[in-house]
Amino acid sequence: MSKKIIAVIPARSGSKSIKNKNMIKLNNKTLINIAVSKAIESKLFDKVLISTDSETYANEALKVGADLLELRPKNLSDGKTTLALVLKDILIKLNSSGEYYENIISIQPTSPLLSIKSLKKSVKLFFDKKATGVATISLIENFHPLTAQKLNENGRISFLNKPKNIKQLFPRQNRPKSYKYTGGLYLRKSKNILNYKGDGWALGKKAYGVVVPNMEAVDINQPEDLHMLKFYLNKK
Question: For the whole prediction, is pTM greater than 0.85?
């Protein structure tokens, strides 16, 4: 019998930009602890699973209530492996043991300000719309994607993707609102992941976005992101 949703907390070790970033502490709780606790507290998921190549990370998640299938294999633990491939490996192994889930959500420890409210909103939208995928997104405010440029060998610039009508970009107030994935969560039909071949985000043909505030969109990947995190925590 299929269950509705499995939650996966992906926490690969070996980050080069910030060492052991998934073990950074906020209010005496690690990012792994925060992500697992949030998923469990939401009461939305049939199982909360940690996916990691580190025994230390695994133990951190287990002590706050996560389950562990097995440590992530080396071929899925480098910085070039897409999250969807990691999730695909998990689903295949669960299915082979007779454990089936209709849907799968990934919740990133590096987005510690993502709220339970946004988790619930995402799941509700997913089922209300009979969606194939839902992702958290945030408004792009510091630049507009339609103005992006590329640089050739000689230093000349040109549009990365030239708009059909450049006049529509000026004045800037005329530019359409644009959004980016925050990476905080991706909720997908399991079949999207099982059919994944390295093409896109595996959100399917009926994907929706949940707009979150800038505070919840903070994703810790570079040292400067820690300054942004501190800014929002102080503001909060």
Answer: yes
